[in-house]
Structure prediction request, 375 residues.
Amino acid sequence: MSATRTVTVDLAGRAYDIVIGPGLVDRVGELSAKLLKAPRVIVVTDETVAPLYKDRVVASFAKAGVKAQAIVVPAGEGSKQFAPFGELMNRLLDRQPDRKTTLVALGGGVVGDLTGFAASVLLRGVDFIQVPTTLLAQVDSSVGGKTGINTRHGKNLVGTFYQPRLVVADTDVLDTLPKRELLAGYAEVAKYGLIDDPAFWDWCEENGAAVLAGDAAKRTYAIEQSCLAKARIVAADERETTDLRALLNLGHTFGHALEAETGFGADLLHGEAVGTGMAMAFDLSAALGLCPAADAERVRRHLGAVGLPMRLRSIGGDNRRTWDAAKLIAHMRGDKKAEGGKLTFILARGIGKSFVTREVDEKALSALLDRAIAA
Ligand SMILES: NC(=O)c1ccc[n+]([C@@H]2O[C@H](COP(=O)([O-])OP(=O)(O)OC[C@H]3O[C@@H](n4cnc5c(N)ncnc54)[C@H](O)[C@@H]3O)[C@@H](O)[C@H]2O)c1
Ligand SMILES: [Zn+2]
Prediction:
């Protein structure tokens, strides 16, 4: 019996599969071979992932009769900048690719966004395959086709919508991921339950700890359900033209403000900020009388139990800071998702009943932030 699951993302004429399960790093070549326009790939990975998985992926291509070369870039968000991007384009061109060459992104969301963007413009567009190696990349950034880099004006402001030909998500590679990174990705998993799938949230409450501890079947299920949820929402609103895709930003208005305040650094990872932000979004929903207080309590209890930061005062280890509600609101206004100065929030009428609103009373918001800061 195969422990592998496949999710098909069906986006207007560009459908592709996400294959999920254990041991897939050694099967990337076999799974991709029939999709390649020519037996030639260039694997892009980072300095942390390369020593762990690069040779295995390259060997899997060799076994499938595909010539594979590799390019290693520095790990971290710094690689998603113009200069490193230009350097990558030149290093790709050094290897004399043609329009039938396929790029393979082996790494987290940074490598995925960077390589996807490179593929969309290299020789006016070559195919690419994603081998996401963080939980966040497996459940979020590898679905939906957004690629891009950062500028001094903000994150992801230069990029393309460009779908991969295939995504291969190996649940085993999560074993080498630092625990904090794993947990940060888990916040985005739980998010899909909170958005519109109360049964999946129940499942997360039961099984979240096992997912984090390494249960391969449960990891596969969690990633499958997450990809299905994101694919469903993205397919209905591929280019973010309606409010539907905005539901994916549950917890992100609060989270973005916390990240901005902590400098988008190691004090608070994106997924950690989203975890805290989702709890705050449910607390605000409860405070506004929209959502039962017991549901907000459940959100806090589960996310806190798996180890996500639930109290602002616990954020930043030794670099604890003084939080200020007005500053957090100012960060929310600076978010590119704030339309015409109006703050956009994803609130909820209960678990799995989220909705988009731009009508949040600022006094209630400020009071909620003051309570969160004092907690
Ligand atoms: N395109 C989208 O729709 C989308 C969605 C969400 C996030 N993103 C982007 O994703 C990026 C964040 O992605 P991320 O959280 O995966 O960060 P990341 O790519 O920086 O990976 C986190 C760290 O883990 C290391 N790592 C990766 N896989 C590993 C493994 N298996 N074992 C050990 N170490 C491993 C990496 O080298 C890195 O140091 C951001 O740039 C964000 O903008 C994009
Ligand atoms: Zn996110």
Q: What stands out?
A: The domain at 5-176 is CATH 3.40.50.1970 (Rossmann fold). The radius of gyration is 20 Å. Residues 140, 188, 252, 270, 274 surround zinc ion (ligand 2) (CB under 6 Å). Residues 207 and 311 are 23 Å apart (CA to CA).
